Amino acid sequence: MSDINLEKIDDFRWRIPQSYKAGMRVPGIIYADEKLLKDIRQDKAMEQVANVAFLPGIVNASLAMPDIHWGYGFPIGGVAATDPENGGVVSPGGVGFDINCGVRLLKTNLDFEDIKGKLKELTCALFSDVPSGVGSKGDIRVSAREEKEILLKGSQWAVAQGYGTQDDLDCTEENGVLLGADPDAVSERAYERGKAQSGTLGSGNHFLEVQVIDQLYNRDACDALNLNLGQVTIMIHSGSRGFGYQVCEDYTRSMSQCLLKYNINIPDRQLASAPVNSEEGKAYLGAMKCAANYAWANRQCLMHLTRLSFERVFNTSWQKLGMFLIYDVAHNIAKMEKHIVNGKEKNLCIHRKGATRSLPPGHPALPDKYKKFGQPVIIPGDMGRNSYLLVGCERASETFFSACHGAGRVKSRTASARSVDIHTLLKDLESRGIIVKASGRATIVEEAPEAYKDVNDVVNVVHNAGLAKRVCRMRPLGVIKG
Amino acid sequence: MKNYEVFEHTADIGLRITGRDLKDLFVNAGLAIFQISSQKQFTRSKDHTEIKIKLKADNPEELFINWLNELLSLSSAKGLIFHRIKIKVIEDNFLEAIAVGSDIANYKVNTEIKAATYHELKLKQNETGWLAEVILDV
Predict the structure, then answer these.
(1) How many Å lie between the alpha carbon of A45 and the closest alpha carbon of chain B?
(2) Residue ranges per structural domain of chain A
(3) Do residue A72 and residue B119 have CB atoms under 8 angstroms apart?
(4) Which of A69, A351, A405, A463 is catalytic?
(5) What is the mean pLDDT of residues A348-364?
(6) B130 CB neighbour count, 10 Å cutoff
(7) Looking at the domain A7-86+103-481, which fold is it?
(8) pLDDT of residue A138
(9) Entry pTM
């Protein structure tokens, strides 16, 4: 429970004053309304927002998106920009263990009516074709040489193997590859952990979901994206698996030594960091890029397997089914990006720990087809309620063009396991037309809708604060959980 | 009596572990991370793989986190669930141990623990022995 005295900026912005804790270099800003703040105050997330404000070189504020909740080091839903020219650091804890965990959204030209009789068959086919669960191994096996290629080329490796198209790359953040990945900065153990897991979904909150659009908010943007009510979409949520966990662990360990070396004073060792321009900072970014590329290749492979599954069930090609990628976004990542600070362009290290990039219309990093409306921002909710598609806005410049990444947990896994009866839950979901397949029952209970905030409330704040604008809403039909 | 318990954390898992001494604490913590995440179901394949572990650290807290992360990392890389641990030597900044694992295929794994974190880590001696609290990223 937190009793921090927040200053109200407006209905959707709250400030933790810099004076709250000696050592904060900037204030904290939390994007939330009164309702969400009640949940946010329940755990230690706000304290973590204040802790992030200690990072050397942090610019403007330690930011928290409305899905913020208690993490380790950074809060989940935290954004921090650091300026390398001003001693700015990079922190593996500001990215997290699941480096480039992210989501992608595909559209189809199928309507709900086309699939409602086949939903069970389709969900079972996806569950069997897409490897999920702890320790699952992918059917897409790669040699040691190929693994290095994946680390350097990300989704581009997958597309070169025939697991997708150029259009998929155009519709992926950074075109599915961060340049400057350094495979030599990666430990042998990380290679070992990553080898068997390409093309696997993972477990916990990772999922693959067949959805249907149930609400349109922006007709013009929907028309431009060819989206309509009743249309079927697919969402894939996964990351860099054991490879990324190992990179984070290796560098959290080695960066602990940097605190003394660079005289970095932080209140939580999980925020261990090193100057972006130091040898240690560069090595971490080189290794982190490898993990980010691994994750993009992984989601590209997962999408390929999904397309094959649909082809099998509907007996036609994925192109004829209109299974085109709308967009893929990372939500655990650190990237060098150009932003305007006090009227000057700066090259900043943007940490997004449970936050999504949200570029406005006209931004040069966007493909032509998204220049008019802005970057698609994909916000998954829980398995019982909704997910959203939004587009980036100019006002998000105040968050270094970032928005939230999901609904955000409100209940611990143990509390959820205590209060949720799996049979009642599955029956309730089934009565609402939702089929769930999971490797373990524990996951279903831990990921029950009541464990999450209502994504509708979270997206409401993002929309009203001007970080991204609602385009359409989806509801789940078939859910594959790891 | 169980030598560990799970405590509440919004997104992750908190684990409170006790031990008669530092060695006992490390053994109990090492086994607990597998006991809370997996259940043995079969003995279909290789059930006994011994792995030697040697670790160094600057202090006991770092040694504790490195120890748990080494076990999680080895478990994932080698496809093993560790069910027996013998610590041969333990000092404040060094340990030498043998972990015995069984093929992960013999288990039903419910939760993937990504890593042990330093966030709110506690490691202390009390009147009855040692106590640790650690938050695991899941």
Answers:
(1) 9
(2) 7-86+103-481
(3) yes
(4) A405
(5) 98
(6) 21
(7) tRNA-splicing ligase RtcB (3.90.1860)
(8) 67
(9) 0.95
